[in-house]
Amino acid sequence: MTERVRIEGPLVTLRPLRREELEPVLGSLLPWVTDGARERDVRENLLERILASGTLTERELLLGIEAGGRLVGDVQARPDQGPKGVFELGVTVFEESDRGKGYGTAAISMVTSHAFDVLGAHRVQLTTAVANSPMRAIVERLGFVLEGVLRGFWPAADGPHDYAMYALTRGDYQAATGRGRRGRRRRGGRARRRSGVLGLGSMLLAFALTTGYG
User: Fold this and answer.
1) Whole-model pTM?
2) Model pLDDT, residue 206
């Protein structure tokens, strides 16, 4: 049996979801279902995903975000959204009271590190609503580069919303963290300062990934 992924950091732990955690995950997912699928079908599909969580399937690597012994959210790295080696990230912190505490930032840092160091990613990307200022601030602090706006991208009751596309390439990641192809740090052990596309964001990403987040 394939060993399931568990990534421990100083703030959160990313670990496989459990069957009994179906309801909170379902509650966070239903508002995003835009194709008219029945709740029963969504529930059955989600249970399959939960039972496979912690392993990289053709669809995703799905992990729960645990903080203080509680499940506070989930994070996904999805390889089915683009060419081989491209992973699309998704993250949700379930409760408003748990937002703004760094849980989502830590989860994104950790799963990004795992994608590059373990899964062989050459690009990690993430989209979010142009109006979602908190999420955009998080990914920009972590060094993700804004590549453009997907106009009229996500269906909504008031009409399709524009989404911002952010990404990190393997070259960006290596420059920020000093890590080589297999996740090993380059000689000297420190992330190099670098001007250009990543700027301060790369230093913050390097800090997160080299002090226990990754």
Assistant:
1) 0.80
2) 43
